[in-house]
Amino acid sequence: MTAPVGKGFYIWKIPNCEDGDIEKIAYTAYRAGLSYVLVKIANGIYDYNYDSSTGADLVGPLAEELAKRDIKVWGWHYVFGDLPKDEAKAAIRQISKLPLAGYVIDAEGEYVGKYTPCRTFMNELRNAYPDFPMALSSYRYPDYHNDLPWSDFLSKCDLNMPQVYWEQAHNPGEQLEKSLSQFTKNWSPFRPLVPTGAAYGGSGWYPTADDITEFMDKAVELNMSGVSFWSWDYCRLKLPLIWETIADYEWPTDPNPDLDITESLINAFNNTDINAIAKLYTDDAIHITAARTIQGQSALKSYYTQLLNVDYMNAAFEITELSGEDPTRYFTWEATYSDGTVKSGMDTIGISDSKIIYHYSTL
Q1: Which of 11, 18, 68, 70 is the most exposed place for a label (fewest CB within 10 A)?
Q2: CA atoms of 88 and 124, how far apart (whole Å)
Q3: Rg for the chain, CA atoms, rounded
């Protein structure tokens, strides 16, 4: 069983992430250097993340889109323990039909003291899928929650993904060490930890960028294969700095992807660096819009000077989708002005010897 490596993120509700656009979710995950995403697939006995009006499953298409970027999907399931056989059936049903790399059991307060239901649930699961990768996601400190059937869960799981949420504090490294120590010393069987950190806020508390870096640094120091964060839904909308901190972090064994030429172009836009933009084009490159065609370095520099200093002054550019392989790229973008106005477009570029030879733009 291969544990998740590098950085991951939990998704609760797919429609709340990038407006439900699966191509944008996949691109955003790729650009953040994520190697895996954990998507909710069931709640108790019911399937989760489907279109309530049509009944269409949303997880499968997203998993297939992420797979194009070599990003794995683990399905997570919130369980209650009142109907363990039916909850197992829900898990088996979803595992059987979805392209998942693994399955995560989210067992919390509702499962306290439910030892027999836990054994029933886990036995049903393992009888159906004896070798499928499975993990437990629950409290960070098992000694504080010793009525949860830890051993019954972990004996049938391959991994332990504790929720190391340092809420109302700023000592994630210390808390992660404490979590590992308790699981190592006091609970059997031990399973490798792939911890989940806090990328959300509440009651006036928010994680800091330094918290996030400390959490990941400590996980690396403790030789953990990876980490994940809760949750994409919250972080992308409300904590952009935290998202960027996670995205910028280079996991030692799973480094972030190199910038594509389109991404270098957008970065140069945001820096209003005309010379850096020009260097991405060949000397005789052609730039085409619906209104005109220009060619050559001088014309490109004049065009971008006008565009970035006048037409799109102080706008922040972002690629929203990227596809294609050499020699062609297709990308959509958004430009957000300081007053909140957003413009968008779709561009195509041709590449030769790592430089742009033609660029059709809707700018």
Answers
A1: 70
A2: 6
A3: 23
Residue 342 CA to residue 269 CA, distance in Å, equals 16
**Cβ-contact 98, 59 below 8 angstroms:** yes
pLDDT tens-place string over residues 189-204: 999 999 999 999 999 9
Which residue has tokens 């059709």? Answer: 360
Are the C-beta atoms of residues 119 and 152 closer than 8 Å to each other? Answer: yes
Q: Which residue has the tokens 């806090």?
A: 198
Structural domains for the chain: 6-248 (3.20.20.80), 261-360 (3.10.450.50)
